[in-house]
Each structure stands twice: as structure tokens, then as C-alpha cells.
Amino acid sequence: MTTEIGKDIAKARALLERGLLVAIPTETVYGLAANALDPEAVVQIFEVKNRPRFDPLIVHLADASEAEKYVGVFPNWAEKLADRFWPGPLTLVLPKRNNIPDIVTSGLDSVAIRVPLSPLTHELLSQLDFPLAAPSANPFGYVSPTTAQHVADQLSGKISYILDGGPCAVGLESTIVTEEDGKIHVLRLGGLSVEEIEGVVGKVVVSTSHASVVQSPGSLDSHYATRTPLRIGKIDLSQYDISSIGVLSFETRYADIPVDHQIVLSPEGSLHEASKNLFAAMRYLDSLKLKVIFAEEFPEIGLGRAINDRLRRAAFKTGH
Ligand code: TXA
Ligand code: MG
Fold first, then answer.
1. What fold does the segment set 230-314 form as a domain?
2. Nearest-CA neighbor of 180 among 94, 67, 266, 300?
3. Whose alpha carbon is nearest atom 33 of ligand 1?
């Protein structure tokens, strides 16, 4: 199968209507999309990504008004968040209706839904008469793609079309929110900060670790991982040959490290800019096949929390 990259909505639509997969841009990361109402289309997502079936998918809608077709109960807190942040990097986990197939939700009685902010994908979703189930368009466990080329680098030959909406503006996956025992829980930190959510619904519980009572089945400790071991925190240059180290920093350039072995995510110290650049930087440093990538720890505020979350999961395998 040859993989084409382009901006042809009619082509993407025709493939999806035939039950095939198409990679789609969103403001967070690229998604690997299929007709969410067709189990035979959705099963291919799990095959192409090598994704375990216990990890449910997010259903993408053109507009918030579509949600009532797929969600049984849309509580007040969810309505407030949807009003404020959709289209945008917010996913709501709510009780599902029966028209959502079990394969999408891994048999759970809830469904994750979101309205992405991307002109091409919005137009595509508006033309389709079904919603799109889409995980991030990367092999399971690896760093998510934030450009069409990232998708092609890993899924070329496995899907026929990548809709190219340019680099993702947010660069981190959506923040996932649900309700459990009368409390609002953040199941995955992401492109919408906890502070912004709390500004609308008050205090929330952050339940993103494996140890949490409420969790996203896909929130594995090791995830978003580079193949090169990644370490977080103080950058210790003494243990390694300088030429075999990669550095991922927030604002600081390290004079001792070769310029092409380090990425400064935001020289101006903007967490938004750092988020947008994070996954491309991880992919680039990984491609150099160095001995180790050192990543700075980010401030635990705003999007810094989500950046640290991704770095920690990427580092988990190495135990640092
Ligand atoms: O920004 C995003 O959310 C991107 C773009 C493409 O929309 N999608 C994405 O999908 O990151 P994925 O599949 O890589 O992550 C979806 C997460 C998984 O951790 C999964 O466990 C969780 O959503 N999830 C899906 N349905 C759920 C449910 N019913 N209950 C709890 N967690 C759920
Ligand atoms: Mg993913």
C-alpha cells in the first residue's frame, strides 16, 4: 500500500466511507481515524497501531450538539466544560449510548468524546454521517505524531492517506475528564491545564497514575517512550562522553553539548511553545541514536504538569 499525504477532504471522506483508515490532523496530535460506528473499520486501528484491545478510543465529533446522539447523560459540569473548551483539547468520559460499539470503548459503559479544533478535520467530520474513533497515529507506546511526516515515518505502507493540516498547534494530547463518586477527575493531563478546568468547575482530583482508583485504561506507566533511554532532572554530564548525550531543555542552552544534540523547547520560557515542540524534539533526539537523552524537569504549573507527565512516562523504562 502506498501512503499519500495531502489536503484532499473528498479523498479522506471516500476512504472512511469505505471502512478504511485515514490519519487526521487535530490541534493536539494526529489521529488514526475510522468510522466509530463500524466495528470492522475500528478493528484495523488496533491492528495498525499494535494496540491492546483493553485500551479504549476517543470518539471525535464535528460539534458539541452531536454529543447527545452518543452519550446517555450529559451532566451540568460536562456541559460547562464543553461550552467553554470545545472545540479544543478536552475529552469528556460520559455514559455511552448503545450505538457506540464495544470495540471502541473496550466494553466499558462510558465513552470518551471530544470536538477537535482543526479546520480540515472539522470540515471532514461535518461531511461524514458518522463520528470518527481515533487514537494518536503512532505505534502503541511510542511518542505521538505532531506532523503529517511523523505519521508517515511510522505508518507508511500501513494506511493509504494522511490528511495534512500542518504542525499541531497544541502538541500534547487532550486532557481527559470524568466524574466518579460525585467528584470530577482528570484521567490524563494534557493540552488543557488543570488550572483552566478548575476555573470552570472548581477543584478536581488528578487521577493519572496507575495507583489511582479511577483511571484511564491506557494510562500505562511506560508510554510516549523514545527508544533511546531518557532521564529527567538534573543534567549530569560527567558520566558520559559528551558526544553521546542528547539534551532536551526548557529555556537553557548548554554550552558543552554539541548544538545539534540539544533542543531548547522555548527560549522565551513559554510552556505553550514548549508543549508544541516537545514530541518533535523527542523524535529528533531519538533519531540521533545517542546513548542517553537528558530532559529537564518542567515547572509543575499549567502545561508544565502535562509535559512532566509525558517525560516521566517516557523515562519509566529506564527507571529514572
Ligand atoms: O488529543 C487526543 O486525545 C488524541 C487526538 C487524536 O484526539 N487522541 C489520543 O488518543 O490521544 P489515545 O487513544 O492515544 O488516548 C486515548 C486515551 C487512552 O488513554 C484511553 O484509555 C482513554 O483515552 N479512554 C478512552 N475511552 C475511555 C473511557 N471510556 N474511560 C476512560 N478512559 C478512556
Ligand atoms: Mg496515544
1. Rossmann fold (3.40.50)
2. 94
3. 216
